[in-house]
Every structure is written in C-alpha cells, then in structure tokens.
Amino acid sequence: MARKKIVKKQDLITMFMEYVLENDHQPKSVFSFAKENNFEEADFYEFFGSFEALEASVFEAFFENTTILLSKSEDYQGFDSRNKLLSFYFTFFELLTANRSYVVYAFNKGKNNLKSLKSLKGFHKHFKKYIDNLEIETIDIKQEQLERIQHKTIQESAWIQLLITMKFWLDDTSKSFEKTDIFIEKSVNTSFDLLNIKPLKSIIDFGKFILKEKMM
User: Fold this and answer.
1) Measured between alpha carbons, how far is residue 59 from residues 93, 94, 174 in Å?
2) DSSP per residue, 147-188
3) Has residue 3 been placed in a domain?
C-alpha cells in the first residue's frame, strides 16, 4: 500500500482547483477526495471544515500571494497610496490570469453575479483591511461617526471598483488582456482624482478664515 502523502493547505487548494476544472463540480466527499489524492482524510480537516471553506480560501490565497509579492518590492514600499493600489491591481490580475480557468469556473458557478459568490467573503474582508492600511488621505472631519462612514464608504467603493474590474477582465478578449490593463490604470487614477481633497481643503480653510474674521 502506498504511503499517504503529507499535505499542506496550498496542496489542498491546488488539488481542489484541478479537480473542479477536470470534473466541473466539487468532489462528492472529503473521503473520496482524500483517497483519490492519497492523503489522510483527517489532514483535510486540519485546514478546512468543508469544501465550501476550501473554496472560499482560493481567492484569499490569491490576495495573500499578491501582498507577499508586493512586500518583496522595494519600489512598492516607497509608493504613495495611488501607486500602491495600481501595483496591487496589476499583480493581482497577473495571478488571476495564471488561474483564469478556475476563476471563470467560480464565476459561472456564482450564476454570473460576482456579488453572489460566497467564496469572495474572506477576500472581501482582507481587501477592505488592505484599503484601510493604504491610509488614503481624507477630510479631517473631527467627528467619530462621520469618520467611520467616510472610511467605510472608501472601502466599499474600492471593493465595488475591484468587482467591476474583475467583470471587465472576465469579458476581455484582447491580447494579453491589454484592455484590462488600460481599464485598471484609468479607473484607479480616476477614483483617486475624485478623492483629491486638496482643493476642498483649501475651500474649508478659506471658510474657516472668513468665519474667524467675522467673529473677530
């Protein structure tokens, strides 16, 4: 009898992705999945409680691999928030392209609605935290509740923008997905231009000055 393989989390993800692409459905059971790939069933449960949990981890793995690659770039460390997000997009979509068949499968499984994909839930959480850590400049409102609303709005707007970009990439038939590259650059730059608070800050400062002068 062949000796059972020792599997890691990434091994299980890779085997699962290969299985669904070859069979167009999830394995019938963890037992059959383990038997087919020659590892102990108990090893699966060390990392995942179900195939749904494993499926959700795929996009989280894409995210984690993206951030690992970015962390190794000295240039990235010196970028402002706009260029960090652009770098994230380009790196993330390179990984998606390398695994396009699986992403198309997951998308079709989600009945043509990215928002309905439960497998994006964990990725959504990590991405929002990433956006928050970019420290995108916002208006200093000095009101805690409004500050929370402002940060949440930026996080969710960035998430919707990413979903729209993923849909564009899925529909893109251009060579090397060059149209997606253009879409990324234009959409990210436009979003940051809309968030440009310097003119608004000047108006607020001027208003404060006028108010102060009137009070004096």
Assistant:
1) 12, 13, 24
2) HHHHHHHHHHHHHHHHHHHHHHHHH--SGGGHHHHHHHHHHH
3) no
The span from the CA of 71 to the CA of 85, in Å, is 13
- Domain co-membership, 173 together with 88: yes
Token digits of residue 149: 């609303």
DSSP 45: H
**Which has the closest alpha carbon to 92: 60, 55, 119?**
60
Structural domain boundaries enclosing 18: 9-45
pLDDT (tens digit, 9 = 90+) per residue, 120-155?
999 999 999 999 999 876 545 455 565 566 668 888
Do 129 and 199 share a domain, yes or no? yes
- pTM, entire model: 0.83
Count of residues making up the chain: 216
Same-domain check for residues 144 and 40: no
